[in-house]
Request: fold
Amino acid sequence: MAFVFQVELDPTVAQAKGFIHLASLAEDLISESLPSTVLTFDLVDRIIHSRLSRPENALIEMPKNPALLDYLISCWKRCREAHRRINGILETGTMSLVASPDEAAKLKHLANTRTNILVKTREVVMNYAGLVLNPDMADMFPQSPEILKQGAGYLATKLLLDAYASEEQLPAEFLTEFVARFENDGLAEMIGPVINSITASMRFQDISTEYTVPIRALTALVAHKNIAAILPSLPNWIPNNLTPRTFELLTILGPYFAKPVAFNDETEKLGKSYFSSADAFGENSNRDREGMDIGNRNYGDVESTMTNLRGTISAVQSALHGLVMGLIKAGSNVREGVLKFLADAVSINHARGRMQVDPKTVGTDGFLFNIGKVCLQLCEPIMDPNFSKIQLIEPFHFLRESPRLPQPPSTTMMFADDETLHSQKLSWLAQNPQAPAANFITDIFILTLGSLHLGYMSSVRQYQELIRQLGEFKKQVDQMKTERDNGGWASAPDRGIREVMLKRYQTQLDAWIAQRLVMATSLLDKVTVDQIMRFYNLAMMWLIRVVLVGSGKNVDNLNWSLLARGNLTQRGFNVLPFPAEVPLMFATLPEWIFEDIVEFYLFICRYKATLFEGTLRDEFMLFSVAMLQSSGYIKNPHLKSKLVEILFYFTHPLYRGPNGEDVGPRLDTVFSTHEAAKKYLVPGVMRFYVDAEFTGDSRAFYDKFSIRYNISQILKSIWSDQNHRTAVIVESQKEEFIKFANLLMNDTSFLLDEALTKLAEIHKLQDEMSDVTAWNALQQTVRDEKEKSLREYERGAQSYLQLGNETVNMFHYLTAEERVVTPFMAPYIVERLAAMLDYNLTTLVGPRCTELKVKNPEKYRFNPKALLTKLVDIFLHLAHRIEFVQAVAKDERSYRKEIFYRACDILARNALKNSVELDALRQFVNKVEDTIRNTQVEDEELGDVPDEFLDPLLAHLMEDPVILPTSNITVDRSTIITQLLSQPLDPFNRKPLTIEMVIPNVELKVKIEDWKRQRKSGQATPMQID
Reply:
C-alpha cells in the first residue's frame, strides 16, 4: 500500500523513501489502538481519504504535490504495474524454480491474494477519481483555485496533450475503467465539462496550428459508446436560437468542422501563409497549366504548396469522418443526433443557395466544405459502380411531411408549382399514413445533396465571381502600367500619387490571386472532385429511377450498371424515351439537384477538365441524352443549355500547348461508344437547337447563338461517326427538321451580316486612326469615344464571326450529304437559302469587299479565303438541284453573274479550287442565267397580276393560297410556313397559329390556275378577270 500510494505512517520511513507522511491517519490509528506503522488493504479507503484531505493540496502544484486527479492516476498506474509484475511471475513459470510444490502453492496463493488486493485497490482509486471530478463534490477535498475552476474539465487538459504525453498522464485503460465504473453513476455530469473544454480548445485552432489534438481527444472519448451516447443529450449539442456563424462555434461539433479548413477568412491568413509572393510588383505574370494567372509565383512552388495543403486537409477530413463514425456506431439515438447536427448545419445556411448573399450572414466556406466531405465519405458504401444500393434511396423522400432536409418556401421545383407540391404531398401521405421513418442510406444521401448544394457549389459560385473580379481588376492594373510605360505619366502633376495607387492595386491583385489559389486547393482537389463525380453519378441514376418509379415502372430488378452503359431495354420496357407526361414524383423535386449536377460538371470543364481524364462519363451521357430527348422534363431551359455546354466541352482537347493552343485527348469518345448516345444524342441536340429559339428569357435572342454554337461543335465532333451521321439523315426526313434548317439559315444570315458589318466599321476606324496627324488633331474626348467604339466593334466581330463560321461550316457538311439536302429544297426554305448565300458572296467579293480589309484579321477569326471557299462549296453541293437553281435565279436583290465570275478569279488566283470545280461553278451560273431568261418569258406572258392573286405579305403570285382562321386573311402557303417557322403567330394579329390550323382556299386556287392557263394561251386579260 505504501508503494501504491507513496505514503507512510512513520515519518522517518516516509522521509527516507521520499513519501508523504500521513500524520493525521497515524494519530487516528493510535487513538483507536490500531497498528500505526503498517499500511494494509483494510486501511486503503482511509489512506486515500487522508492523502486527499491534506491542506497542502490547495497549494500551487509541485512535483510532490500534484493535482488530486494526477495523484490518483499515478496510484492507479502503480497498481497496474504491480499487477503486471505478479502476472508475469505466474505466467513465466518462475514457481517451478522454488524448492518444493508446497512452497510453490504458497507463493501462488500469495500472488493471487495480492492480485485481488490490487484489483480492489484500483476500484477504490477509481471511486475517488470520480469524487474528485464530480462537480457536486468539488469542495470535498482541498485543491488549488485553478483546479477547482476547471472542475471535471481538468481531465481535458490530459487529453489535449500530445499523444505520448496524453497516454502517459491519462492512460486509455484508465479512461476505459473510469467510463465503465460511472456509466450509471454521474458520467454525464463529469464528461460534459470535459467535452466542453476540448471543444473550447478547438475554437482557437486552425489548419496551421495543433488542430489534430482536440480532434484526437474527442475521438478518444467517443470511442467509448457510453460517452458517445451522452453527447446528443448535452444542452450545447445544438443550442437554440443560433445564427449560421454561431452554429459553427457554439455547437459541440461545429468548431471541429469550422476551424481546420483550407479557405481564406477575413484575415486572408492562409493566402499570406501559403501563397505569398516574393515580388507582388514584378512586371512578369506567370500562368498555370489551365491558363490561370498566378502572378509572379513559380508554378512548381504553387503546385507543391497545393499538394502539401491538400494532404493536410485530407487528414483533417479523415479524422472528422472517424469522429462522426464513432458517434454513429454508438447507437440509434446518437446516430439520430449526428444526422440532426448535419441537417441543421445545412438547413441553417439555406441563404448560401442565393445568387447574392452577405457572407457574414451565412456559414463559412470551410465549414460547409468539411460537412460535405464527411457526408461524401459516409456515402462511400452506396457509391459503388454497380449502384447496388440505389433501391434503398427513397424516390419519394421530398414528399414526406418532415423530410431530412426541409426546403425553404422559395425553392423552385423541376416542373411543378407550390400548389402541385402541396397536393402531391397530401396525396402521398394519404396513401402512406403509417410510412416508417426514412432509412439511414436515404438520410445521408439527401444530406450529401444538400451539403454539396450549399457548401461546395456555393463556394464554386464565389470562386467564379472572384475570377471575374480578378480579370477586370487585372485589366485595370495592366492599363495603368501601359499608360506609365508609354510615358503618359511623365509630365502628370500627380505622378507620385499614381505610382502609389498602382502599387496599392498590385498588392490587392496579388492578394486576390492568393485567395484564388487557396480556394482552388480545396475546390479542384482531384480526390474531392472524384468523390463528388461518383456521388453525382449516383444522383443522376437516382433521378432516372424517380422518373421510372413515378411512371409506374417496376424497377426492382433493373441492372443499373448496364443501364448506365446504355443498355436501355430491360424487364420488357424501354427506359428511353421517358413518358410524355412528367411524373409528379419527379416534377416536385427541387430543381437545384439538377442544377448542381450540371454546374459541377461545367465548373470542372472550365477550370480543370484534366481531372476528368481516365474517368467514365457513362452516367452523365445517359442522363444528358435522357433529358435532352425528353424536353418537357426540364422547365428551366438554361439547365438544358448547360447540359449542351458540358457536351461541347467534351469536344475540347484537355491540355494546352506552350503557346496556349488546345492539345491532347478529348472526352467526346463517349459520344461514339455509349449506346444511348448513339441513338438519342443527335435527336436531342437537334431538338434543342430549335427549342432554344423560344426560351422566354429576356436574353434569349443572344443566348440562343451560344447554345447553337455549342450544338454545332457537338455535331461536328460526331459527323465522321457513321452511326451519328445516319441519325442526322434519319432526323432530316422528319417534319421537325424543316424548323432546324430554317433556324440554321436564319442564324447564318444574321451572324454573317452582323460580323461583316462590324468589320466594315473596324476598317473605317482603323483607316481614320492610321492618319496620325488628323487623329491627334481630334479632341481627346472624341478619340476616347472612337476607341471605345472600336473595342465594341472588335468584340462584336469576334463573337459573331466565331458563331457565324460554325453555322457556315454546318451548312457545308450537311449540304455535302445528298440524303440531307432535300429538306433544304422546300419552297419556303430554298429561296431564302439562295438569297443568304448570294448576299454573303457579294459581300465577300463584290465592289465593297475592300471595306472588310482590317489589320490582323485573325484576331477576329476572319479568314475571308476560307469563308469564300466554304460558301462556294455549298453552291457546288446544291448546284445539281433544280429547286436551288430556280431559287438563285429569283434572287433579284443579290445575284449577279459577275460576282460569281469574280469569285472564280479569286479562287483560281489563290489556288483554292481546281479547274474542275471552277468549271462546275461556271456551269451552275449558266443554268441560273438560262432559268432567268425562261422566267422573264413566263412573266411577260402573264403580264400584270390581279391584286386578288398576290400574296399580301410578299406581293408575289400565290401558288397555294390558304386562309388564316385567326385573321381570315388569305396568304400563300409557303409564306405562312416561313412565318410560322420563326414564330407560331398570325402575322396580322399576333394570335397563336400553327400550320395545321390553316384552311386551303380552294376556290381562289382554281381561279389562279384558270387565269394562268388563260394568260399563257392568250385568252385572258386582267379586265376580264375583274
